[in-house]
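so my prof wants the structure for this chain in the tokens format not the other one, which i didnt know existed until like an hour ago. anyway here's the sequence
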Amino acid sequence: MNTYIIIFVIGMLSISDFIYPNQKKLYHDVAFKVAFLFFCIAVSIKYYVVPDITIYVPLYESLIDFSAIWKQLTTQSYVEPGFIVYCGILNFLGCDYWTMTFIVSVFYFYTIYKVLTKITTCKTFALLMIVYSEQFLYLTEYRQSIAVCLFILGFLSYLEKKKWKVFLFWVLALLFHKSAWIVIPLQWVIMLICDKKTYSRKWFLFLLFVFVLCLVIPLKSILMELVNCLPVNEISKSIGHHLSLFKPMQFVALVYISFLCFAYTYSSKKLKGSWNALLLFFAILVTVLYQNFFLLQRVRSYFVPLVVVYCIQLYTSERRNNQFWKQLIICNCYAVCVYMLTIGYFTTKRKFEQRNMDMNYTTVFSLVKKKPSEIKKENMREANFFWKNIYLKD
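here's what i got, hopefully its the right format
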């Protein structure tokens, strides 16, 4: 099923959030459940969706026993250890590749549903924003999907004061995708600031010094030398590819500096608020800047669902207070975020994503006309063509 159809159907159902008044809660609940069910079915039926099957399918099929899993973990695996173990367990249990992707999708659905339970209205519209902005995450990026889910579940556990769950979820997230090593330390800093009202100025000055230092030192050369010392060739190549984006990597320090300035203001003035203020501040920076910087694009996926829920919470609270001008500002900020997502979607990787959209979106229903081996062969050929002739040229 084409992703545009998914977005269109959920978009039409989300209109009910704004047409019917608050007392017609039944209409909102029905629309949300129908939209969510449609989303779950449309995504979970995908079958050998390209282009990342060139990595995942050979890996999954190679993990036939413990020795194969151990070899991937200890030699030149491009993939993180958590995902290797996950695939190895399912392969050992006799599950095929589609079952593996189906379980990842179900885990993502569960996480998003749990996030959306934090709001009471505009759930369908919130779902639309997530579906629209994160389509490549839930369609093809299985490793990061799991890491994002684990991060969000850990954050929700933090809100529930269950620190042991936070530790468990976030450690697991670190095992599934490299981007989690950027997000989780940052979120740990956010939690520290939110748990206490004030911090010594020396701590902020020290962190500021570290971030400024990251802007002026030859970060690329230093990190590349360290990467070359790693005993695993494929991981070194992967990290080296990301480090080759010198300015995108180094620019992240500016984001941290901006966040630090805001955090200091929050701490020194003892502003009233909660984790939402800090979370929203950084997440909007990520959302706005991701289309120009590869690393930020990876990081933003962890925050988008939380930003959407936060904006809906603000929208509903201001609407109850009849503060129209504040409501208008919030809606406009929300619109700007969506607009920036759109700009990034259609400019940064236009050729990459357009080609991806033009590829076959095969589903389990495609098995009616073709054998599994035929679908796999066709999609693998198309994916290999994409990586060699489209992606590398861009």
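also thought this was worth mentioning. Confidence is low (pLDDT under 50) at residues 245-249, 270-274, 342-358.
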